[in-house]
Amino acid sequence: MSTIKNDLVLRAAQGLEVERTPIWLMRQAGRILPEYRALREKFPDFKTYIKTPEAVVEATLQPIKALGVDAAIIFSDILVIPEAMGLNYEMIEKKGPFFPKKIQTNADIDNLSIANPDESLLYVTQAISLTKKELNNSLPLIGFAGAPWTIFAYMTEGSGSKTFSTARKWLYCNPEYSHKLLDKITTSTILYLKSQIRAGADLVQIFDSWAGILPPSHYSEFSLKYIAKICDAITEVPITVFAKDAYFARAEMAKLNCQVIGLDWCMDIAESRTLIPNKTLQGNFDPCNLYASKEVIKKETEKMLESFGKSKHIANLGHGLYPDIEADKVKYFVDVVKNYQFN
Ligand code: CP3
Fold it and tell me: Is residue 184, in this structure, part of any structural domain at all?
């Protein structure tokens, strides 16, 4: 058994009994906390920030103190993988990621390397080791990576997009090289997650943020297949797979070699339990619900907790916090979950 003092998230992930439903929040670090913004101002840009392990530790621990969540998630980004493979990105203030030289040809894919985390991602693993020391076995630390399809989408599109039509075009026009790129990302991601686990990550989450823009057949062929490879390769710690908007893939996701499936707020809870009977579910409060009054937040949170039931649930949002949600409301949501008593 784990030696972590509050191991509710890890126990719930393994389907074991818990005294109460544990909670952490996607994008709990950074987005909403004034103390993060104050720290961030000392750095010229986001990338410099995440490459400074001491600063990463602070951003990772801030939500523990401010919100009282049951797990920390290492402060970083999913786009560190393309960079470690040789494709540089910029994080443009208030706009998001931009790749000056996106993937456009077969040769671009042939020229990418497999990430070597012990060389190019040491800034993440060092931050994980430092954070583990600071946590001193009080709470679990979550590591993460993007799903290969979501990383592929950014690498071929070159930026965020409403449709990711350039990324989806690749799948129809050049499936052979699409698979080559997805394979390289998958191999890099497995090495990366294993290095995070060696550094101390107690659970890892795979974010497939752009799962929902693929037709189901493409989702199986170009995304789930690679997520499955990652799940099969990671046997050291529990894995959570969060595929936003992939309601159509839930039955297939039940077959993944992972312990937890993340749900977004559009996925019906009872239906998800039927489709994924064997796993712990994570989610799925609509972050917009946190703009409402505390009265409404309480009522809706308790409704969510009842629908999931006492076991095999890790409370979370259905996607990340939005930057303008008040920290006080978020803290209230966390407290309602922590104080709820099942009959
Ligand atoms: O969850 C956490 O608190 C840990 C930190 C974290 C960040 N990004 C920090 C960040 C995590 C888990 C991510 C994951 C991530 N990054 C995803 C998957 C989750 C999701 O939201 O769907 C995606 C798609 C990205 C790519 C990305 N990074 C975008 C689109 C942007 C710009 C818009 C935005 O989300 O803010 C980023 C930048 C980014 N990543 C910031 C932070 C705190 C903002 C930059 C800044 O503070 O200057």
Answer: yes
Asked if residue 238 has its Cβ within 6 Å of ligand 1, the reply is: no
- 3-state helix vs strand vs coil in the chain, percent to 5: 50, 10, 35
**CA 310 – ligand 1 centroid, Å:** 30
Instruction: For residue 145, give both structure tokens.
Output: 């990576």
- Residue 26 CB–ligand 1 contact under 6 Å: yes
What is the C-alpha to C-alpha distance for residues 84 and 117, in angstroms, rounded to an integer? 8
In a domain, 3, yes or no: no
**343 inside domain:** no
Exposure of 44 by Cβ count < 10 A (0-12 exposed, 13-18 middle, 19+ buried)? exposed
Catalytic residues: 27, 31, 40, 77, 154
Q: What is the pLDDT of residues 146-189, one digit of tens each?
A: 999 999 999 999 999 999 999 999 999 999 999 999 999 999 99
Going by CA atoms, what residue is nearest to atom 31 of ligand 1?
A: 96
**Residue 253 and residue 220: Cα distance in Å, rounded?**
10
**Ligand 1 binding pocket includes 39 (Cβ within 6 Å):** no
Strands 96-98 and 90-92: antiparallel
Give the structural domain span for 52: 8-261
What CATH number did the domain enclosing 250 receive? 3.20.20.210
Backbone conformation region of residue 96, classed left if phi is above 0, alpha if psi is from -120 to 50, else beta: left
User: What is the model's pTM?
Assistant: 0.97
